[in-house]
Amino acid sequence: MAGNSFGELFRITTFGESHGKAIGVIVDGCPPNIQIDEEFIQSELDKRKPGQSKITTQRKESDTAQILSGTFEGKSTGTPIAILIPNEDQRSKDYSHIADKYRPSHADYTYQMKYGIRDYRGGGRSSARETAARVAAGAIAKLFLKQHGIEIFAHVSGVGEIESPNVDTADLKNLLEIRESNIVRCADPATANEMISFIEKIRKNGDTVGGRIFTIIRGVPAGLGEPVFDKLHAELGKAMLSINAVHGFEYGSGFEGSKMRGSEHNDIFTTENGKVVTKTNFSGGIQGGISNGMDITFKVAFKPVATIMRDQTTLNQQGEETTISGKGRHDPCVVPRAVIIVEAMAALVIADYLLKQKAYLV
Amino acid sequence: MAGNSFGELFRITTFGESHGKAIGVIVDGCPPNIQIDEEFIQSELDKRKPGQSKITTQRKESDTAQILSGTFEGKSTGTPIAILIPNEDQRSKDYSHIADKYRPSHADYTYQMKYGIRDYRGGGRSSARETAARVAAGAIAKLFLKQHGIEIFAHVSGVGEIESPNVDTADLKNLLEIRESNIVRCADPATANEMISFIEKIRKNGDTVGGRIFTIIRGVPAGLGEPVFDKLHAELGKAMLSINAVHGFEYGSGFEGSKMRGSEHNDIFTTENGKVVTKTNFSGGIQGGISNGMDITFKVAFKPVATIMRDQTTLNQQGEETTISGKGRHDPCVVPRAVIIVEAMAALVIADYLLKQKAYLV
Amino acid sequence: MAGNSFGELFRITTFGESHGKAIGVIVDGCPPNIQIDEEFIQSELDKRKPGQSKITTQRKESDTAQILSGTFEGKSTGTPIAILIPNEDQRSKDYSHIADKYRPSHADYTYQMKYGIRDYRGGGRSSARETAARVAAGAIAKLFLKQHGIEIFAHVSGVGEIESPNVDTADLKNLLEIRESNIVRCADPATANEMISFIEKIRKNGDTVGGRIFTIIRGVPAGLGEPVFDKLHAELGKAMLSINAVHGFEYGSGFEGSKMRGSEHNDIFTTENGKVVTKTNFSGGIQGGISNGMDITFKVAFKPVATIMRDQTTLNQQGEETTISGKGRHDPCVVPRAVIIVEAMAALVIADYLLKQKAYLV
Amino acid sequence: MAGNSFGELFRITTFGESHGKAIGVIVDGCPPNIQIDEEFIQSELDKRKPGQSKITTQRKESDTAQILSGTFEGKSTGTPIAILIPNEDQRSKDYSHIADKYRPSHADYTYQMKYGIRDYRGGGRSSARETAARVAAGAIAKLFLKQHGIEIFAHVSGVGEIESPNVDTADLKNLLEIRESNIVRCADPATANEMISFIEKIRKNGDTVGGRIFTIIRGVPAGLGEPVFDKLHAELGKAMLSINAVHGFEYGSGFEGSKMRGSEHNDIFTTENGKVVTKTNFSGGIQGGISNGMDITFKVAFKPVATIMRDQTTLNQQGEETTISGKGRHDPCVVPRAVIIVEAMAALVIADYLLKQKAYLV
């Protein structure tokens, strides 16, 4: 209700501020007897952690996950899995100059208006640091989905005006290797180079830039999703829009599809090796809010990071005009690190609907 | 959980199939002492009802709402408001030819996969007829929001490749009049004419086309929204994506914003007549998931209607290839009627968050 | 949230006031392909309806249920089942004398304090008439449970100081026949006669009396229930306490068990025909909040009906002392009709946990 | 959904097993700007902690609470408050003898049936150790309620057959002092002595005994509670029944009230110093599920602790009969420590409904 939980049957609740003692998550509803591979959880966190390359923030956090409960002899027991990630590199003083000021396009002003109090250090609860907890929880969801043959792959498909050509998605494992071979996490190597150069240039200018992430979920059986309000893509959309800096979501044909005609957009059913498939996939694997067994595809748009290394005018808490200077260590572009957050949220959505499907199909 | 409810504090639950006895909705959590203006509810339903113009379906439904409970002497009592809308023009025979076939890009196949049974008449529960119940509930939410000085305005900003220029939003009442003066519900008269001609052409070809709706919510005080997962725009996104045929959602700067730099995208705070405002509004009135008092703006993309008046190949329930012919009375383009659904869902989201804000700010 | 829904996966939402147009319920989450036997639903409602015997209220309501949605060719489709029960015998004038007065031990004063407005006719939403909707929904839950071999039996075990001896529960079908052979619904015929005479005497005195209902749920497999807060007996307790006039709930050994020693109270495990059983059942079929496969047993206490046919002093809305006279047609004792409400709520709880169990045990 | 959360607006989620690394709780929905008095939280935990007297378990746990998030400069910020309580005195070997056996009247068998896996050490998640997390969360709820002038007082009103006479509840602060002056936490000193002697005798016999706790909530304004399913007493009942070993709950007149007549049971409204009151309080401060401003009163029954220091026969996981010996350090009677758990759960319920009331009364 207060906004810190996600999912119904596979449910997570996160806590923690950017500069508090720790952040963390409770995963409630993970089925029992899932092998909880701690190394995998850590490897996922490592892909999100700050300081991993020259085009991310230089802040240093090891983001080490500690599992406090919910497992026994390496397996989930069906009880809540609590994961703790202590905060380490907290230079709270970096923020003393903004204690009284509202940073433009940040949540400083709105948190103050909502709560009448705010932890200004690093944005407090509004910081994207919270997403580390999501990644840890998403890793558990992925371990569960793996048992059901479900794979999730995301990559950076756009940075600023640069757009990756469509990549061949036949072999997701191979694509993942390509993605992880470059620091911007684009699965098209040539575009990746272009993006990296561009982000470096942006950063040197003290500026930031937005980007886009394309995602594919493979192996979801037909029949997942709930009708009407909890359509599978509606929940995916909410999950993505809940990630810091996201300003847009589209699935399947998306906004371009709204320019098409029915006769070109309809996905014709046929069979392939005895399996029902569609000849095209403008539906993005979802029809009437329910999966049809095809690849689920969607795209997410991230606005440019609000913290720039330049002077900006703004207001202080007294409503007076003042100047704010960009300080601290920030990302020039969030999408390279956000790829793993997108995957985590997608995994959480699918895990939740998989449990629902089991409940209702008696 | 099963997907037929929306909202937490201001909560609706809808029921009913396209060709059953009735559809309807329970609004649970409407505050007491709200004047429930039945004429207003009906006038909202009239804007969504079929058969209203030459560019909508010619099906005839009066969509007459009956309030069964929750009011006393014209006012809400705080108890559940149940609204019933009997189904009238059910030519179920129109659907006998598809009882055994999966219509392309419809929910026939996925419902069968999910439930192992489906009401094939008119798409059953997956029919957009369900949205009449949302409009009735949304009308109640609007009556509540009106008391708080909150206005919602949506119009058709795009049909196929046709895109409306930005309209002057200073006077929403006037804009509403312009919108209602044409059957496509675009607030730019010249573009409206172009759209109407285009849709008529499409319809004569037995085809359909997608479109886009732009929405503005004015008067929302700063501080509405919940952090992290239940960000105001995330819930708005889910609400919109839950509407039949929606394939994309963006707010504020949206997908275009992901191409911008932070230095151009940041909304600079200043004051206007003693009120905190931002010089630009790329944030779309929402920062960190919480309203900042500026206009909330978003855009929704609708795919083309799947039912076309042409022959298409498809599969039957036995997995055999077959041909399906377009029959029945369908919309060539849903956006003119969907405008009111978008407004209804927006009203429901804002009403819910308004109640939450009252709860938590003690 | 606003209190008119019950259950999570098998979820009901009721609506309607005592003297409005209709009451009703939406059952959301009923699994598909359940045979929805309308005659059974009606027969359950008939057991609760007013006017059925000389010891119940003489109000006349046929309580005819109409299914509006969610079924196709006699089977559930997995979509919301809406049931409407029109109100018939509304002598709203019976209540004009109390429009301005707070009836003692009724909800008049508290509803006024909570909402600042109330529908005074027949208690409005606080009327036990609402429970007809629960009985209709409970009938659907029973149809679902029947498929899983689960039976529910309740009977009146006490009226005032009269207490039924323990009945032999080996054959629940036979017990049900005995119960239905007398108007007080006690499965011990001798005690039933005593209770009936007593209630008649009470009624002639213009007074009312409380009572107790004992319930047994048989056939629940081991493993149903959720740990910690949603223990099976905690939810059963909430379900029972939500029924009008209930003041107490105990399961298994109950309050008497709190006087016992561990050495006598512990239920020793053993096997019977290869099945794990316990030699005694002080646990009432639930251990650690989870069913153990034994009969689930509980008892519910109902206070005497607040409306008595006598003059009482009270306050009016202006806070002045005034006199109120008992008028209208009311039950001298609610337990004979409440038996079916208790069964309905028990069925709803078990149905919900059965779905949860399917979800989590992957 | 999976049972580890309680409350809707003021919502807690607990985690942790008896012998894991830590237990803890997230409080989500605590309003901002509440002074979070850490000493008070610790003093509440100290009242529940093991080893506090000769009639409790001799296990030693300091139960030191660490606040990880959600506060800034000593005040709540409206974001999730996470509290960690590390486990210290874990003699897991004490449990190796039961790894394969089902302890009678414990949750060993049912957890195994539900999950197919269990952490047998100390009962794992089913251990009452989890309630320390509730006490910490309840302390925060109490700090919030204090601001609204709401007090909660519970004491041991019965142990085995021993029943305390009614105590004078005019001065709750004084009563609390009396209660805390004896180790059994009964507010009647003479009865307290009797209870202590009795429990000591029971313990020497290697046996255990049940008991009862009476609670009073004072200062709740009229109008708290939701109608129909979420009646205030229904949620209180669920809260109490969710506490380990509870077998019964009654409020106001309770089970005894079911033996009374309406003419004696009705609470007559009158005024006292301009305030609406009732002459008697059989309603227990709640009418129609909503508070009427009078003291809320209820009683909870606890069964005897299942672990006794005697040999018992039982089954092992293979379904073979075996003998189990009582080992470890256990409470002979839980009620002295449970008093603070009952208060904590009551505080959580009232806090939740207080927020709901603010939401809906616009």
List keywords for this structure.
homotetramer, 362 residues, alpha+beta, Chorismate synthase, AroC fold, five-stranded antiparallel β-sheet, 18 strands, 22% strand, lyase (chains A, B, C, D), EC 4.2.3.5 (chains A, B, C, D)
Written as H for each helix and E for each strand, in order along the chain, the element string of chain A is EEEHEEEEHHEEHHEHEHHEEEEEEEH
Strand order of the largest sheet of chain A: 1-2-3-7-4
Low-confidence stretches of chain A: none
For the record, the count of structural domains of chain A works out to: 1
CA-CA gap between termini of chain A: 30 Å
Would you tell me the structural class of the helices and strands of chain A? alpha+beta
Descriptive report:
4 copies of one chain form a homotetramer. By secondary structure, chain A is α+β, with helices and mostly antiparallel strands. The first copy, chain A, has one domain: Chorismate synthase AroC (Chorismate synthase, AroC fold, 4-Layer Sandwich), CATH 3.60.150.10. The first copy, chain A, is built from 9 helices and 18 strands. Chain A has helices at residues 38-48, 108-115, 131-146, 172-180, 189-204, 232-241, 254-257, 262-265, 335-360, and strands at 5-6, 11-15, 22-28, 66-67, 71-72, 75-76, 81-86, 151-159, 162-163, 211-218, 246-251, 269-272, 275-278, 286-287, 290-291, 296-302, 311-315, 321-325. In chain A, strands 1-2-3-7-4 form a 5-stranded antiparallel sheet, covered by helices on one side. In chain A, strand 1 and strand 2 (11-15) form a beta hairpin. In chain A, helix 6 runs antiparallel to helix 9 (335-360). The longest helix of chain A has 26 residues, at 335-360. Chain A is globular. The relative contact order of chain A is 0.17. The mean pLDDT of chain A is 95. At the A-B interface, strand 1, helix 2, helix 6, strand 11 and helix 7 of A face strand 1, helix 2, helix 6, strand 11 and helix 7 of B. Strand 11 (246-251) of chain A pairs antiparallel with strand 11 (246-251) of chain B, so a sheet runs across the interface.
